[in-house]
Amino acid sequence: MSTTHQPAISNEQALAFDKEHIWHPYASLIDPSPSYLVESANGVYINLALPNGEQQAVIDGMSSWWCALHGYNHPVLNQAIIDQSQSMAHVMFGGLTHKPAIDLCRTLVEITPAGLNKVFLADSGSVAVEVAIKMALQFWQSQGRGEKSQLLSLRNGYHGDTLGAMSVCDPVNGMHHLFKDSLQTHLFTEAPSCAFNEPCDSSAISDLHKLLSENHQNLAALILEPIVQGAGGMRFYSPDYLKQARALCSKFDVLLIADEIATGFARTGKLFACEHADISPDILCLGKALTGGYMTLAATLCSDKVSDGICKGEAGVFMHGPTFMGNPLACAVANASLNILLQSDWENNIARIEQGLLDGLAPCSDLDAVANVRVLGAIGVIEMKEAVTMADIQALFIEHGIWLRPFGKLVYTMPPFVISDEELSQLTTAICSSLSHYVSK
Ligand SMILES: *Cc1c(COP(=O)(O)O)cnc(C)c1O
User: Fold this and answer.
1) Among this protein's residues, is 259 annotated catalytic?
2) HSE (CB half, 13 Å, CA atoms) of 98?
3) For this structure, is 123 an active site residue?
4) CATH code assigned at 398
5) What is the pLDDT of residues 111-138, one digit of tens each?
6) Catalytic annotation on 240?
């Protein structure tokens, strides 16, 4: 039985419709870059139907943008969705509650850094960031300190694409000028200059210190991605910086929002990147890998101090409530994904992937066009001296049997945790040989 209203069309016709009518991320509809048709995905492989009529399996080096921890078509995750769909796919969360959401929140409270006891379930990472910002604003308003309404953020940060989240992204690569009349203007401090394995002396923290000491009266929160700045530059920075930032926020009475939407769930070698510095933020955003890449779901956790502050204030309630809040299908698959992760020997597994990336990407450093190769946990980054042309380099990657989506000068990979040693070596070998073909063209 057909499950769509539409008569079947050829792959060619389907792609032609896509090109003409469907927005893709950060895309043009006048001069779109190519989209590849995916027929299925299994394990670490995405199965493409190529325009020449052939099929090709490519190793997904992106985990579908940090999400697909356990690979595709995972029998346990599939079953979690099937089982949940047979009791209820969705019910509203206003006035109703359910075990899938309760179990998920029990786990999140247990595994996240100490003190984060309250959970707000949101529908995507950007919404989780909006919720975090609103929590911080409502908190200060409740204390009679409504003038604390500005945010402080790090340059090279990325926090999502909705208006509030975008306003705390890097002002240059977040292209604030395009929206300058409608974006809230916030403060930005220099991106941390101390590398992951370096201490941070006072000069590296002085700009943050200065901005906090001069502006704390008007600042609601500092928002940052702990340890790894993702889409804003793929930079790894010192746990010492994070530790000092936490201390400064406490000193100046500014809330700390940690955006772990990319780093959460073991990607950096710790379950949460905050653990590298042994700190707890006041508010924590989670998303991406929360459901193992099956469905959209995110969460914003906060401390009792923040939730008490909000709820004892004038409004008495936290003013946010998405229609699909706590969606049972998403919670059920998140529970299954977290169970797989927490039952696994993830620490050794991430160390294995880290070593595989270090060994496998080392040859790329020999290329003249490469500025820097860096690895942390299950994240490998090759920074080129010049920006790459996405469509050209993507075609080369596919020829070499891998899927990556570089941006600007950054070619990077964060493979699914289930990748085998052999697949990892195929991935890294293919990255280095594609780059060497690319630069020699
Ligand atoms: C991806 C990302 C977001 C936005 O999440 P969406 O689900 O795309 O809205 C926010 N913050 C960070 C650090 C991210 O990596």
Assistant:
1) yes
2) 20
3) no
4) 3.90.1150.10
5) 999 999 999 999 999 999 999 999 999 9
6) no
